[in-house]
Fold this sequence. Notes:
The complex is a heterodimer. Chain A is of the alpha+beta class. Chain A has helices at residues 2-30, 33-62, 69-74, 81-86, 92-114, 121-143, 167-196, 202-233, 243-268, 272-294, 310-330, 347-379, 387-407, 418-441, 447-476, 481-491, 493-518, 622-639, and strands at 383-385, 520-527, 531-534, 537-548, 553-562, 566-570, 573-576, 584-586, 588-590, 595-604, 610-619. In chain A, helix 8 runs antiparallel to helix 18 (622-639). Chain A is globular. The two termini of chain A are 50 Å apart. Chain B has helices at 2-27, 34-39, 127-144, and strands spanning 28-32, 46-53, 59-61, 66-72, 77-83, 95-102, 108-115. In chain B, strand 3 and strand 4 (66-72) form a beta hairpin. The chains are: A alpha+beta, B alpha+beta.
Amino acid sequence: xxxxxxxxxxxxxxxxxxxxxxxxxxxxxxxxxxxxxxxxxxxxxxxxxxxxxxxxxxxxxxxxxxxxxxxxxxxxxxxxxxxxxxxxxxxxxxxxxxxxxxxxxxxxxxxxxxxxxxxxxxxxxxxxxxxxxxxxxxxxxxxxxxxxxxxxxxxxxxxxxxxxxxxxxxxxxxxxxxxxxxxxxxxxxxxxxxxxxxxxxxxxxxxxxxxxxxxxxxxxxxxxxxxxxxxxxxxxxxxxxxxxxxxxxxxxxxxxxxxxxxxxxxxxxxxxxxxxxxxxxxxxxxxxxxxxxxxxxxxxxxxxxxxxxxxxxxxxxxxxxxxxxxxxxxxxxxxxxxxxxxxxxxxxxxxxxxxxxxxxxxxxxxxxxxxxxxxxxxxxxxxxxxxxxxxxxxxxxxxxxxxxxxxxxxxxxxxxxxxxxxxxxxxxxxxxxxxxxxxxxxxxxxxxxxxxxxxxxxxxxxxxxxxxxxxxxxxxxxxxxxxxxxxxxxxxxxxxxxxxxxxxxxxxxxxxxxxxxxxxxxxxxxxxxxxxxxxxxxxxxxxxxxxxxxxxxxxxxxxxxxxxxxxxxxxxxxxxxxxxxxxxxxxxxxxxxxxxxxxxxxxxxxxxxxxxxxxxxxxxxxxxxxxxxxxxxxxxxxxxxxxxxxx
Amino acid sequence: xxxxxxxxxxxxxxxxxxxxxxxxxxxxxxxxxxxxxxxxxxxxxxxxxxxxxxxxxxxxxxxxxxxxxxxxxxxxxxxxxxxxxxxxxxxxxxxxxxxxxxxxxxxxxxxxxxxxxxxxxxxxxxxxxxxxxxxxxxxxxxxxx
Lengths: 647, 145
């Protein structure tokens, strides 16, 4: 009964979304506010119904309703309460529901915030958002029905993929989907701007904060994904250029480009067409990412997401792109720039270059990800390019982007005078060059590492120059130091939020550089009492223990880590789940600011006398997570409402 | 002014195209089956070889970390050697993909092993449970001595 209620709710929601999309459009064209109001009610109804769907599916998980196929596959009687709730979005069908629910939530907030302020755009924004929602509801009702029954009803379910039994896997999809669905809002405003012909700056001003919110969640999702990969997957890394990771990274890159290029439009009335195109591209990439990861077109270690809904997503993507292109062509005349580039040495051109490089990076990732498909289709041979390709092409692009991160915020608009350049960059360049010399003198041999670190120092110095200059200006006005600094952050929250984000990126860069350049590892088999040595650490194998946990058996090794004195006992494990074909690794580590000691249990002798262990000393990885925290705080600062306007 | 930007854009596009071209030629990995590899092996070329781990071929020496096995596609088999612990999903009669190159000594030297995860729905089996119980018994019994 409950599952049928869920299916029915999805069908009614689909009908309401379709009605709302048509009603809002008709209302806008014929000037009948009653129809727009009706669409608004439909959107509210959709929110209530999708919430009900989500609640009913969660309920089915909580009561172990194994007559529902999705529940039977993703939970079993041993699944702890906590993971029965998160298991709801542990696989395809449930994550589409979560996605749709978030989209409905965003639509609700858009209605609450913008029904007065968005004027002519508003009905069309509703039309676009409800159309996107209708697509996802169609997927729920036809392609991936979460409430489909299973007969005969099994006595117990299969259980959640054990890799997903982790807090990182609860928050990672939530953050990522909030980012993906968040992109729909600026996309809807962009299309509304094209449809109404109001392609000026209104849609950009209205969606500025929305874009930062979507970017914030995308960043958070990527970071948590990296953290999960590092502490659960047990291969000792945080980023593998896996298609699933790339799928989330591409929209992040284009959204980052968009965040920067809107500033040029706001300030100089340029790049109108480019900005519309960027936001359409970003939205398209979120759909493409879902197609890539959910359709199973590309073999990947994240194979648990495979499904048969590729055709749906590809068709919708084609529809979106064609509609957008047609609208762009239709409004071509209105899209010419009012401002012009005056000089190559200006903030406009720094931002333009930033955009070109970000798009180049996104294209590289796209190309590398679909390369196996292309080569198979064109030449009949399946050829892939792995991490070396992505690193080789992207590292120069990212280094150039870091350099621009120092230049862009300080260089003058229009045309930078020699005086502006000297005042802003003399010190940072000097400090950067000195840093490069110092790092080389300290014996860092990798040119790439020296370059990355020196650029990081240069950019940090530009931020310091700007902040101290602005603080001094406030001090001269008679403010005291701390209130002056706090006031700057609060009053110019967008600018300084941006600087904090940049600082976060620099810290992440430090972590990535350190871990790539200086991490070491070894693999060895130890008898009990025997020890291995790596990078000044001594790791002694003390024996194995086996325990029975609530839903699996765990075999853990005890390894004493010391460097002269005993630091800790690490217990990397293998977990045997009844529903899995093979054990799951449980890594153990000792995290530190300078380096992490990271152990993975490989093979072991049944009598506990021997164990093979992979031992890694990973340098500076913690700074990736610290930088990530700084970055997200900066984004939050930038989202805060402006204080300049009276409330 | 516009000319400068167009020229700049062209330079960037050309540089990117070159980097991508160089990247692809240097890091392309060819997907082959055992029979395709057997038909035309090129020493030193990067391959990704997929097949079934032949029953009875698996040798694993924990002390030296030497792993050897044969990958088969039913028509041909390829001997593979690797240095390191086999991944968790790896085993005889299971699918595996290895990345590495063909050597002049007549074996495939794998630098990376990717075990294939089977995706079909399966009723819970007690293989893992038996193994787990077995281990608990052995280790506890051993601990009392």
